[in-house]
Amino acid sequence: MLWRAGRFEFHFPRPTLVMGVLNVTPDSFSDGGQFVSLPAALAHAQAMVAAGADLIDVGGESTRPGAAMVSAEEEIRRVVPVITALVKRCQVPLSIDTQKPEVARAALAAGASLVNDIAANREDVAMWECVREFNAGYVAMHMQGTPQTMQAQPSYTDVVAEVDAFFTDRLARLRAAGVAPEQVVLDPGIGFGKTVAHNVQLLAALRQFRSHGRPLLLGVSRKSFLGALTGVARPEERLPGALACAALAVRDGVGILRVHDVRETVQVVRVAEAITA
To answer: Residues 98-119, buried b or exposed e (16+ Cβ, 10 A)?
Structure first.
């Protein structure tokens, strides 16, 4: 299975890719404000690459439940200088984590190779046209509602079946918009419009989503459902739960793990791969 993201190509099955999270925001739920300066952002990204990150995901707008949206202009101001500088310093693909086509366009023009789109439930095609134009990779994530509404009262008849149907529909819409399947990665959107029970059901069903023939991306790092399951309130103390999910995700064939704690995740992934080989 081929995944293309700009000038980068990955062939699956292969060792699980680890995507390091770089939030250049003042209000992200786990590390808001730590990397808003350009020197801090560059140092953190380079440290994650040195620790084994295969990709870096740059985000300029918090998507935690209830987070306020920022303008496209402000988001571009936050992310483009970081991407421009990182392209010269890192040899790994850079991802732009955004819902806005204009931000995606600016980031791709600056050297990013893929778009991580939490709003793949969109109806307009502007984002997909941008992805097609730049031949970028695209992460299509499932979300019920928006970050402002998603955790109000998440409701499904069958969350696994509905996310599975969403993937089928998105792949068809992306193809119609000119985005090749080889550009697409699928993400079940853990924590985005789901209860704790919904998240657990989706994690238990990861193998089912591989039927679409596309790599899966999983993001559980530091999320609140881990705290609900373990009683751990502070996001930065939820690493053990995230690593448990990472090991099981490797077993179930997940291709990419989006994480804050790169070094620890890489160790878990390599051991899990050795055991399940």
So the answer is: bbbbbbbbbbbebbbbbbbbbb
Sign of dihedral through CA atoms 28, 29, 33, 39?
negative
Give the residues across from 140 on adjacent strands.
Answer: 117, 186
Edge-first strand order for the sheet with 55-59 is 184-187, 137-141, 114-117, 94-97, 55-59, 17-23, 256-259, 217-218
Q: What is the pLDDT of residue 57?
A: 98
3-state secondary structure of 109: helix
3-state secondary structure of 48: helix
Specify whether domain 2-276 bears CATH 3.40.50.2000. Answer: no
Place of tokens 């994690």: 203
Active-site positions read 223, 258
Mean pLDDT calculated for residue range 128-155: 87
Distance CA(154)–CA(149), nearest Å, equals: 9
Q: Which helix (H) or strand (E) holds 259?
A: strand 256-259
With a cut of 80, say whether residue 66 has pLDDT above it. no
Sign for the CA dihedral angle at 250, 240, 68, 32 comes to negative
- Is residue 134 helix, strand or coil? helix
**Per the omega criterion (within 30 degrees of 0), is the bond before 65 cis?**
no
Residue 112 contacts residue 96 (beta carbons within 8 Å): yes
Compute the distance between CA of residue 127 and CA of residue 178 in angstroms, rounded to an integer: 11
What is the reported pTM? 0.94
Decide: residue 225, CB within 10 A, 0-12 exposed, 13-18 middle, 19+ buried.
Answer: buried
